[in-house]
Amino acid sequence: MILTWAKGQTKPFTEMLRAMVECESPSDDAGAVNRFVELLSDVAAPFAKIRPVKGGAFGKHLLCEFPATRRRAEGQILVLGHSDTVWPMGTIKTMPFREAEGRLWGPGVLDMKAGIATFLFAMRALRELEITLPRKVVLQVNSDEEVGSTSSRALTEKNAKASAAVLVLEPGTGLAGKLKTARKGVGGYSVTVHGKAAHAGVDFSNGASAIVELARQVEKIAGFTDLARGITVNPGVIAGGTRTNVIAAEARVDVDIRIAKLKDAARLERLFHGLRATDKRCSVEVTGALNRPPMERSAGIVKLFRRAQAIGRQIGVEIEESSTGGGSDGNFTAALGVPTLDGLGSVGEGAHAVNESILLGRAPDRIALLAGLLSSTDIS
Q1: Which class does domain 2-184+294-374 fall in?
Q2: Contact 127, 47 (CB under 8 A)
Q3: Residues 134-163: pLDDT tens digits?
Q4: Residue 190's closest CA among 258, 274, 287?
Q5: Domain ranges for the chain
Q6: Do residues 6 and 367 lie in contact, with contact meaning Cβ atoms separated by under 8 Å?
Q7: Span between the terminal Cα atoms of the chain, in Å
Q8: Mean model confidence pLDDT for the chain
Q9: 365 to each of 10, 311, 347, how far by Cα in Å?
Q10: What pLDDT does 377 receive?
């Protein structure tokens, strides 16, 4: 019933998504993010209680509360999305929203405005088809997910603790649209070497090159990677020195870390803070930590995934699971022990790339899947 309804919504779904994509909302433009929040508020207002939340420098977060329609409703389901995209303002001029080749294209269309549109149509389906909503549903749309979720994390964790389960509107994995039952934890370290400046021609031996010392440290840092344990350590950005004729007094490397198990965070922390200069005239300074804990595949997550699989079979779609090295706000909720299912947004490819697009033909079954989960009485 829901799938049939959703198949008749292709045009309005496309129109809603066009409005969302054309309302650009890069993370670093609070005004643009707030305009998108206003657009989303207007769309959801007829059937939800709207509450904007201050989000600091990154624009407002948004809470939309959809009341349960069962008399003795208990608890809530938290649905997570984000309003910010990685694309700078003006990208829409060179990557316009368009429909072609069975897809919808445009900046932020996959990650993750189509996911938000999918949720809104799922809620609309339940309302128009008069299907009972057994629990209150809270949609939380964060403004800073793409830049670390620093201002939204506390709000996410607070709402997750009050929820029976969390559903995340990030896109599915690959063109199969696999759901995500595990994500790596994400963090970063900065390692700065302090050396001693000197004239490279006149006083070479009196200098202690921070760049040379950093090169030695980078080799050590790269060795922290342990693929068998799911640990990757990537020295991604290097900066240092002032001029070629000056021995560098300072140099820095910024490092990305990914871990599959939370227990490995402490191990990496010890390794980074155990770095020591080989040239005793230099010193090593380390800052940073794990930013997002890993989303580990727990029994609660598996139970939630199995329910999604069953709903998928009812609508003729085989739902698969996946793990990924990327993080989302679902990492925070899963780390609290709250059953969390990620990747429930749209199906497509090219997130953060010029070929960002979704498969329009998969929109109906994703709407039906999400509506089925939201109306289930046995997800927890």
Answers
A1: alpha beta
A2: yes
A3: 999 999 999 999 999 999 999 999 999 999
A4: 287
A5: 2-184+294-374, 185-292
A6: yes
A7: 24
A8: 97
A9: 12, 10, 10
A10: 81
Q: Which amino acid is at 288?
A: G
338 neighbors 166 (Cβ within 8 angstroms): yes
For residue 259, pLDDT over 70 is answered with: yes
> Would you list the DSSP string of 32-51?
HHHHHHHHHHHHHGGGSEEE
Three-class SS of residue 22? helix
Which string of b and e fits 131-154 if b means at least 16 CB within 10 Å? bebbbbbbbbbbbbbbebbebbbe
Residue 110 CA to residue 347 CA, distance in Å, equals 8
- Is the pLDDT at 380 greater than 70, yes or no? no
pLDDT over 70, % of the chain: 100
How many angstroms separate the CA atoms of 260 and 187, rounded? 12
From the number of C-beta atoms within 10 Å of its C-beta (0-12, 13-18, 19+), residue 316 rates as: exposed
Say if residue 71's pLDDT is above 90: no
CATH topology of domain 185-292: Alpha-Beta Plaits (3.30.70)
Give the Cβ contact number of residue 37 at 10 Å.
Answer: 23
For residue 216, the one-letter residue type is R
The answer to whether residues 149 and 329 touch, using CB atoms and an 8 Å cutoff, is yes
Q: How far apart are CA 3 and CA 67, in angstroms?
A: 23
Q: How far apart are CA 380 and CA 69, in angstroms?
A: 18
Please report, for residues 52, 54, 156, 341, the alpha-carbon distance to residue 144 in angstroms, rounded to integers and kept in the order given. Answer: 14, 12, 12, 20
pLDDT at 364: 98
Say if CB 259 and CB 265 are below 8 A apart.
yes
Do residues 177 and 343 touch, judged by C-beta distance below 8 A?
yes
Quote the pTM value.
Answer: 0.93
Name the burial class of residue 126, with classes exposed (0-12), middle (13-18) and buried (19+) by CB atoms within 10 angstroms of its CB. Answer: buried
Torsion angle defined by CA atoms of residues 104, 109, 115 and 120, in that order, rounded to the nearest 10 degrees: -80
Cα separation, 112 vs 17, whole angstroms: 10
314: amino acid identity, one letter:
Q
Is the preceding peptide bond at 16 cis, omega within 30 degrees of 0? no
* Rounded Cα gap, residues 359 and 355, in angstroms: 12
